[in-house]
Write a structure and sequence with these properties.
Elements: E1 11-18, E2 24-30, E3 37-39, H1 40-43, H2 47-62, H3 71-87, E4 96-99, H4 105-114, E5 119-121, E6 142-148, H5 157-165, E7 167-176, E8 198-199, H6 202-212, E9 216-220, E10 225-229, H7 233-247, E11 253-256
Parallel strand pairs: 4-5, 4-6, 6-7
Antiparallel strand pairs: 1-2, 2-3, 3-8, 7-10, 9-10, 9-11
Helix pairs in contact: 3-4
Length: 263
């Protein structure tokens, strides 16, 4: 199979056995150029089987009383970060979109506590707030496009390019996923859950940034979210430093290029 980031031929990396959702043995491949890893088994599922897997898993996990993935704390920290960055002039107020929003938790928090509107769209859930129809998704329309826990579910480059296509020419792209320097060759790695099929690295994300025309980025550890900017680093960095200075600590980690926080 070809890497959906750089089109390099990928090689077998390791396998993992899943005893739920009828997955069985799953084979993972790795790109020798950018380190991107993907599940060949997931990529080869039919669209119907893939949709059923996602619906079954997320319907169960989203409504679990113990909230096993600690989403609520992350959602609040993401809302707080977007609010602070907006007040600092790093993100423009305007049309915002959360693509793949689930039930719309981040949008609800932004509405209730920060007086900010984040439109919501999801293929598998009906958002509880600010939902828009697919026909309202227009290229280069949104000043901010957010996606949380989406990149690890995407099986093709066209979908990644589609999500990014909604960011306006002067907009920002906010991404929550796990991005290490290298994906561990370990079937017990905690990120290998039944619906995760794509695993990005610092290099693969840097290549995506370049392809999409983003120049610099920030990362916030508490929200586990990156924000990518089209503006030159010389214009963005002073505003990042102003916010960090006002807060009294390095709230946002900045880099010209992709902020490779996790080494």
């Amino acid at each position: 199979m070809k890497c959906l980031i750089c089109d390099t031929h990928m090689h077998y990396y390791f396998s993992k056995q899943f005893d739920e959702y009828e997955l069985g043995k799953v084979d993972y491949c790795k790109c020798p150029h950018c380190g991107f890893c993907a599940s060949q088994s997931h990529f080869e599922l039919s669209p119907n089987d893939w949709n059923q897997l996602n619906q079954a898993y997320h319907s169960k996990s989203h409504y679990a009383e113990d909230n096993p993935h600690n989403r609520n704390q992350r959602y609040f920290n993401q809302s707080l970060m977007l609010s602070l960055m907006t007040k600092q002039g790093l993100i423009n107020r305007g049309d915002w979109l959360d693509w793949g929003c689930g039930v719309g938790a981040v949008s609800q928090l932004l509405n209730d506590y920060f007086d900010l509107k984040l439109s919501t769209y999801d293929k598998y859930f009906t958002p509880h707030i600010n939902a828009i129809d697919e026909t309202a998704l227009l290229p280069r329309q949104f000043d901010l496009v957010v996606n949380t826990a989406v990149f690890e579910h995407v099986r093709d480059r066209d979908t990644l390019d589609e999500i990014e296509s909604y960011v306006s020419d002067k907009g920002c792209f906010a991404i929550h996923t796990l991005v290490p320097e290298n994906v561990p060759q370990d079937p017990n790695w905690m990120y290998l859950i039944p619906v995760h099929c794509a695993f990005h690295t610092n290099k693969s994300m840097a290549l995506l940034m370049k392809d999409w025309g983003y120049q610099c980025s920030v990362y916030n550890q508490h929200s586990k979210m990156w924000v990518l900017f089209r503006e030159p680093a010389a214009e963005v960095q002073p505003r990042v430093e102003q916010l960090n200075h006002a807060l009294g600590w390095q709230y946002l980690h900045f880099k010209n290029g992709f902020m490779d926080y996790w080494q």
